[in-house]
Amino acid sequence: MAHITDPIQRDHEEHHVIPPRNYVIVFGLLVVLTILTVLAANFQFGGLLNEVVALGIATMKASLVILFFMHVRYSTPLLRLVVAAGFIFFGIMVLFTMADFVSRDWRSTPPRQIVAPVEQAPPPVTEPTLGPQPTQAVGQDEVRPRGTVNPGR
Amino acid sequence: MATVSTPIGEPIRRPERRVRLTYLNNGYGLRSWLFTLDHKRIAWLYLITITVAFMVGSIEATLIRLELLTPAGDLVQAENYSKLFTMHGITMIFLFLVPSIPAVLGNFFIPMMVGARDVAFPRLNLLSWYVYMLGALFLLAVMLLGGTDTGWTFYTPLSTTNYTQNVVPAAMGILIVGFSSILTGLNFLVTIHKMRAPGLTWFKMQLFLWSLYATSLIQVLATPVLAITLLLVAVERTLRVGIFDPALGGDPILFQHMFWFYSHPAVYIMILPGMGVISELISAFTRRNVFGYRFVAASSVAIAIYGFLVWGHHLFVAGQSVYSAMVFSVLSFFVAIPSAIKVFNWTATLYKASVWLQTPMLYAIGFIGLFVVGGLTGLFLAALATDVALSDTYFVVAHFHYVMVGGMLLAYLGGLHYWWPKMTGRMYPEFLGKLAAITVFLGFNLTFFPQFVAGALGMNRRYYSYDSSYQIYNVLSTAGSTILGVGFILPLFYLTWSLKFGKLAPDNPWGSAGLEWQSPTPPPPENFEEQPVVLHGPHHYTRKEVTVG
Amino acid sequence: MADTHAAQAAASGTTTTGTPTSAMSGSDTHFGAGYAVSAGSTAHGAHARAHQFDTPQQQYAASNLGMWIFLATEVMTFGGFFLAYIVYRALYPETFALASPHQSATWGTINTFALILSSLTMALAVHAAQTGNRRRLTMFLGFTIALACVFLVVKSIEYTTHIEENLWIGSQNFHMERPAGEIVDPEAARVDLDSTVQQGRAKIFFFLYWTMTGLHGFHVLIGIVLLSALLINNLRKVYSENYYTPVEMTGLYWHFVDLVWIFLFPLLYLLGGAHWHI
Amino acid sequence: MGVGASSVAFRVDSLFWWMTMLSVLISAGIAIALVTFAIKYRRRSPDEVPVQIEGALRLELTWTFIPLILSIITFVWAAILFVQMSRPEDDALEIFVQGRQWMWKAQHPTGQWENNELHVPVNQPVKLSMTSIDVIHNFAVPAFRVRQDVLPGRYTTLPFTATRPGVYNIFCSEFCGAFHSGMVGRVTVMEPREYQAWLSGATQMESPAATGQRLAQNLGCTTCHRDDNRRRAPSWVGLYGTQETLDTGETVTVDDEYIRESILYPQRKIVAGYARPSIMPTYQGQLDETQLAQIIAYIRSLGGMNQQQPGGDSSVPSTDATPGLEPNSGAPGGGAQDEP
Fold first, then answer.
1. Is C73 in the A-facing interface, judged by CB distances under 8 Å?
2. Which chain B residues have a beta carbon less than 8 Å from that of A1?
3. Cβ partners under 8 Å of residue B101, min gap 6
4. Touching A: B residues 229-268, CB under 8 Å
5. Into which CATH architecture does domain C56-270 fall?
6. What crossing angle do the helices spanning C105-130 and C134-164 adopt, rounded to 10°?
7. pLDDT, position A149
8. CATH of region B36-518
9. What is residue B17's predicted lDDT score, i.e. its pLDDT?
């Protein structure tokens, strides 16, 4: 006869009582990391490093909060999976969207030449002037290219 | 091995039918329904509201089809035509398709299939219906204000110009309905995780549970992004900021990425529950566990997770990079595999089975046929080069109607007939049921198959007037929609009729092995008279087991 | 809590497995073998337990999982904004670098400390609840609420300054001035900030700023309401070491609010240099 | 899939028919299996319990891998074709295309422009560089099997090589507002010689009103100025010579001068009841005086109170020749439809 297992029993969760001292230590670490990130802000690391440092420190702080304040360190694999799921799917969204943005100029090469209509003087500029533009005026509003992404500047 | 004591399928009356407490006679009056916490009654609240939504959406569809009877736009004005197809899309998708199977059949049967007394959070369950109603009221207000005319996709910058109307209330309505969907999904996930009866391990769960579990995953993880996207559109429109408006530095393609990050998985919100229902129907009417049960179960979750990786196939001609297009294309091809596995396994389940061609089974077979067509034509749109030729044509319209109407709606009707006796304690008239099933199947094919041809020949969707060379396909399609309409009206009448005049249903008229059928009909308020303990896998019909191959 | 579901199940399972069909309710047919029934749920646990649950543990596990799933949806909610932020930061790094000096790192840092500290007091409040110390629970909940209010007050000061500086996105006069002082980023220094294009991009930054901090501030507000409800309930002696699930759940929510801010702070205040002004 | 008239049409069609063939085979197989099983194994007695078959691993793997392989083959085929379709030839003739609600405007390298028409030489690689001035459109030529969104604020390119002379439809394939379906045009594929002749502006003789009618259609005027749509723009039928009240309260007679002014400076005099700023685009610089006169002649031919002789050659001097000077009082860059 089939062995009876109780799903509730298997997923049983316990309350975890963590000594307050641990919370205070975690708080201390958070304070230190906050000071670090503020100090790092005025350095120019170059490239994308500023972003990496800022987000790296933020991720560390977030992990501390999740693991200790939110007790995930002591919880079941299922809960950890749920915690991870939110971030994984957010990651998927960012990854695939950015993949499009950074690889875009593969195809949308700007036109080699545009001959303006009879009385349209200004050739297309790379930095378009956008002003209160007479959208009715044919010619002036035709050309409004925009730079493609350049994440690394 | 098995000794058969009573014939199955014929109403069996209990020796004495003293008044038993059921969820139906557990309190009377409007208050006992509107403030109920019983998941079965909440399912009824949903059933009534989504039926109304379906009728509204159908009326809009009828007007669209009548308009397209002639190439010149002559029945309604062009602006009104835009509003018609926009409201048709919004009503059908957000008010009908997304909540249909999960909120009605799921609400009713998930707790029963896991052997629980209720969902994990009954108050949240009721709240989600009220939230749904609030969103529906917003959308109703939009209709009364004259409707919105951006298409259900709300593409920017069209939706943020003054040219379009009532975008903000429509977006808010959808946002609110989205929260209802999140709450439902959350409730189901927790219910399936934490409320299972003793002995009910994951691979003893019925396939309906698996597919609704997968659906709920999508609802919970994708819907918030839609909410934010629509919120951004509303703020952009109100405050005139350019987050998606290229004139102010925004990027309309970002909108499309965010929108389809929800809306592609949302397609699976609409079809996965249908697949779950079909698995149940096939099991019950062949008296067999579905062939390759574990593959079918796993494929549901695979589809749900995979569904998040393919949204870019809606953007092949939208100005997405070629590189992204390739990645999304190959991933879209792979998502077809778990769907194919399901179809093959369903078909194989019929082999050497005991096929009982009652109404629900007719719907199930119809579903497989239409879903195969819908799924395969999806590959034409996942393939890059053919998508360039077919995108935004009637080919696309036909494709997703085959999946959503042919798939989801047939599954919903099939499931409704299958569980009708359990829900109401009455049988529906079998002959009319079969008649309606066949009418729907024929009407559906006549409506949408010509659209494949028209689309392949280049007829664009959302066209109010069209080149007269496409008229023949539109005439066929409109004729088909008339038949389809009859097929939908029939069940509406005979099911309502059966509530009062139908034959009394036995506890288990189909002889199904599903856990939900093991409780009395209609079920008591707490679903089972005693706590069930699960000893066997799903759909366990007692006869010798063999494994081939 | 000794008698668990499984014990029950095993017991009834062994008694009914011999003739599973006979125990079926209805028993119209022999199909559906595979289910047995056990005695109905027993009443155990002295405190509040909803009828659909068998044990308080089950109820707690369900609440906990439900809360975490809710937080996952919250991640995706804020995720939509973060995605927009990432995309536009990648598209217009210079404009964004010029926009963050308009944020006061002073206020931002004060608020960061307020939230981190409130997370600590919240964690201590949960600990007080776990150990059944009502007085400390009241105290720590009070601290948390006070810090949340500090956060909102500081935020509203910042909002007022931004409105005065014509940085409210709904305003007709929206205009982002070139920030005072040296601009560290050489690329950014070259940007003609007065052009309409640049103002449009600046407006995107402030659009994200207002909506992200606005939504976050809304969460703080909800948090204050929830915490106040806990405080009132605690004064009415609702919670004990046997029942404090709401405290724990609100705690999770509150830490999540802190979590969002941990990311908002560097993205909106620091990238582009910390600028200390009030 | 209809007539194919471009270099990729045959290859796209081959892929399409390959997939159709696979689809028909698979659906037919499943349909036959379903029907056969449903009939052959139908329930014969109510208490029948079939043999329980739980599954077969080998079978599962078979029907996982065969579709997988077919999928990969199809993907690779389609992807290679797509890359070829989307990469323009180096020597392509570049034509600039602009979409707007609800018309197409194309401009040739020599400066000629045309509305809702596109003339291209046969067997010559063409690359359309496209942008939109308002919302997203999609330039689709079903006969060429090509389609590409036309985005505001950005260029997208659409390469093709027409291989068969003739006239084919251009559709807008991305919903762009109520008259989306009116945003259609024609692409005329010509022999290179004829194309050169067309570029140098050879036209045939016809009556001014007839030329005007053709112009009005090509320019997209009749997309809005139609009988059944008085809300967006006045119908021209019976319009000529009537008195109209402007939104400033003045009255004006619809005569040659007023029509000309409305075409060139649509924001100046707006009839009461229509939005200000007007949704009408200016045609300044697109029409020479002869063509203006031809359109006026066409409007006059549609009837009205005051039948005059065409003032075709009576050029009305314009006092203000600055192009596009009519201020769009909307928010900066908010698009043509912005309310003030």
1. yes
2. 535
3. B212, B273, B274, B276, B277, B408, B411, B412, B415
4. 246-249, 253-254, 257-258, 261
5. Up-down Bundle (1.20)
6. 160
7. 38
8. 1.20.210.10
9. 53
